[in-house]
Amino acid sequence: MYHLAAEPYLGIWLKGSFVAFIVFVIYAVLVYFFIQRARAGLPIPTIRKIAGLEALDEAIGRATEMGRPVNYVPGIGASYNMQTIASYAMLGHVSKRTAQYDTRFIFTCADPIVLPIAEEVIRQSYLEAGRPDAYNPDDVRFLSDWQFGYCSGVLGIYHRERPAANILFGAFWAESLIFAEEGNRIGSIQIGATANMAQIPFFVAACDYALIGEEMYAASAYLSKEPVLYGTVVSEDWMRILFFAVIVVGTIFQIVQGKANVITSIFSK
Hints:
By secondary structure, the chain is an alpha/beta fold.
């Protein structure tokens, strides 16, 4: 038995797609508006403080005072993984700070494609800090593309180098607790960030600071204040406020009017 397709709303929109289009238009307008204001230097809402990012200078400063290195682990995601891409911005910021403080910086990765990208990011950071000669390519290393082989290599660095600050920023899986627990045992200040929901509890439990979920994506905007990134993050926050308001209003209408109400009729179009 064949069923006829639903009649398009206004002859154009499939049922349920009209509101999605309107939401997309509102979001696009907000992004454009806030990016233009940020570029023009006009005031826009600020991103709330993220404790883990505020503590970065403290962690690097402690490593400098103790004469011990800063260790950076970008997770085991591929070079095109969104969390790895977000990690590049953080890598640039941390390596630039270590260059300014004249602190040894160690980077390890589990993907051979990530290595040349990281080398270029770190080299550029040292150049921007005015200390290109301080860049040590031997401290930027590919260890293994096997998950637990990489774990073993990182733990070996923990024990040999005793980093005073440990930055875990990227896509992590079963190795997250191994890194965080051992880093905690050797007394490192640890800042962990991942969007893999199953691994966040381990970072919260074993790290001094944890960036939860999408906070890691907002990190580059928070640190750089780059107009395009900053305006986009602010727009996302405004859309969340709008969605929350719609949910609250819709719940009230559902309680008061019952099954059929103005909110459900709008969203069914």
